[in-house]
Amino acid sequence: MNLLLQKPTAAHGAYPLDQIKVDDFLPALKEAVASAKTNMEAWKQSKQTDFKHVIVERGFISEQVDYIASIFHNLHSAECTEELEKISPEMMEILTRFGNDMALDPVIFEKVKASYEARQSQNLTGEELRILEQTYKGFVRSGALLNDKDKEEMREIDEKLAKVGLNYSQNVLKATNHFTLDITNESDLAGLPEAVVEGGAELAVKNGKQGWSFGLQMPSYLPFMTYAKNRDLRKKMFLLNASKTFGNEFDNQNAIKEILELRARRAKLLGFKTHADYVLEERMAMNATKVMDFLNQLLVKAKPFAQKDLDRLKKLANEMDGITDFASYDSAYYSELLKKKELEMDDEMLRPYFKLENVIDGVFKVGQKLYGLNFKEVNNIPKYHPEVRTYEVYDENNKFISLFYADFFPRATKRQGAWMSVFKDQGLNSNGEIQRPHIINVCNFTKPTKTKPSLLTLDEVLTLYHEFGHGLHGMLTKCKYKDLSGTNVFWDFVELPSQIMENWVLEKECLDLFAVHYETGEKIPEALITKIKESGKFLEGLGTLRQLSFGFLDMAYHTANPADIKDIKSFEDAAIKDCSLLPSFAGTSISTSFSHIFAGGYSAGYYSYKWAEVLDADAFDYIKSKGVFNKEVAGKFKEHILERGGTEHPMELYKKFRGQEPDVNALLKRAGLQ
């Protein structure tokens, strides 16, 4: 029995993730696609063009395919075994071809077009009108108006993009797992905290090596760069990471060139000058000029502060260690020492107060205080890995809201970073029910060791709150149609619910909910809370410049003529030169592991992190003026932002919550860049 073709029988219709085998995927997908195509042919025979037929009934036809694709994509990111990796190219090829078959079918489009043109006479609700308009526009943006020759070219482009994007992503994962810095001399561990050393010893044992090993997964890499006194080893570790997919067996340079060329061809086929113009048509920013103006506005403000930040780091490095050639691999180390000197605080002082279980309990309490949510950990929900935790989420009236999966620790089968995803979207299903969503947060946090529980850094706590914000956006949605629910919003709006959650971590009322010493149970001292708040502005000039450099690099790639990009390293250096205060190293590249824009959804969209920071700074300024746990204000944010998904233009939703458009000065004020 292929479980991917059966109706889930677990509680809340949870997918049987613990029983699905890799061998199930391809047969199930082929059968589901064949069935969907047969049903679509029958649907096409009908002369109906009303909303229910064109939008609702057509959507149900691909329900089984969507179900299989959802599980596959989530596992490919969070639990990509060698067996799953082997079938990934064929899975992606089938899914891409099926998507194009639906998007480029002239009969399907003509029915969508007829319904769209009759939209004003169908007595539609606002949400129905929105999804009909978005559906029509989606078909056009997928090539429905192209001639047959251009449609075939579009199919070819999309299938190639799926393959090369997959290869890019797999190279990053393989390289991250492949390289380690191995240490046998105990004196080389100087400066590293006990838990980091213990983790290094455990990784060495796992890899069958003597001594200590430190890898490129962030919970291993970042503490090494932050605390290791041995400058030569910091440089070695830095170069391992910065060159992991550049000029070696995992090289992604050709993949980048091919992706850019394919995206540019696709944009031109659809009548756009560049890929950025194509993407930004469906963003709050609207066009590349507005994005570049926004990035440059922040650059002018941030760069002088960044230079002052760097000068402070250089001065400290010179005073302490006589360093006159300060380099990128010194930044994290001396930033931590400067924080300790100026704020009398470092991450190791905070870790004991940030035990993972307590932080999780704290973020759940924030969800309860703001939105009346209750999280109940359960063991009857199937998991794809034993480390995954599962929760039922209920509102204050004990009504079921969502399933929530949490996967916190790094594995060789999991890609780097942190993200929120969806196993099951909220919205109408083929049984006529409005199903509740199944949401997942995936992170790569510091693992527990034999002697210590998982103790998080402040950055990891902020990450947990960030992804939980995305999770709330997915959990609390109240839309009728899946394509508009939850995080199905413009990319430069999707980060608002996540980034705003980080603000609570810097507030005493929030820290008092969970920040207790893991051994003594002592509450985090007032003095440390003050320092945590101060740390929000610490070296913010450099932090802002770093984020802007990614935004400029993204826009440079997606507004350029790919034929002019002869050398990835040279292009990269030129694109970010105005944000670069330190020289780059030969043989290294940001671009070759910049998965957000080459294997994720952020192409011509990385600016959205800073864009959403303006939204979240402005929004939290308003929230804080009323009290960080003010139920009335939280209710407005829930009603107009979290519940509404993409049912209206995001600026209209924001103004309904805030009463005005966002002000960039709120971000500059919060960051201390004025």
Mean pLDDT: 96
What is the number of strand segments? 9
Instruction: Name the poorly predicted regions.
Output: none
Shape descriptor: globular
What is the name of the CATH architecture of the largest domain? Answer: Orthogonal Bundle
**Biggest sheet layout:** 5 strands, mixed
Quaternary state of this entry equals: single chain
CATH class of the largest domain: Mainly Alpha
* Beta strand %: 5-15%
Q: What is the domain total for the residues?
A: 4
Total of DSSP H or I helical runs spanning 4+ residues:
28
Strand and helix layout:
Elements: H1 22-45, H2 51-61, H3 63-78, H4 82-103, H5 106-117, H6 126-141, H7 148-178, E1 180-183, H8 194-206, E2 212-215, H9 218-227, H10 231-242, H11 253-269, H12 275-280, H13 288-321, H14 331-343, H15 347-350, H16 356-371, E3 374-377, E4 389-394, E5 400-407, E6 419-424, E7 427-428, E8 434-435, E9 438-442, H17 458-475, H18 491-494, H19 496-505, H20 508-514, H21 526-535, H22 540-559, H23 568-575, H24 595-598, H25 608-626, H26 631-642, H27 650-658, H28 664-671
Helix pairs in contact: 1-3, 1-4, 3-4, 4-7, 5-6, 7-11, 9-14, 13-14, 13-22, 16-17, 16-20, 17-19, 19-25, 25-28, 26-27
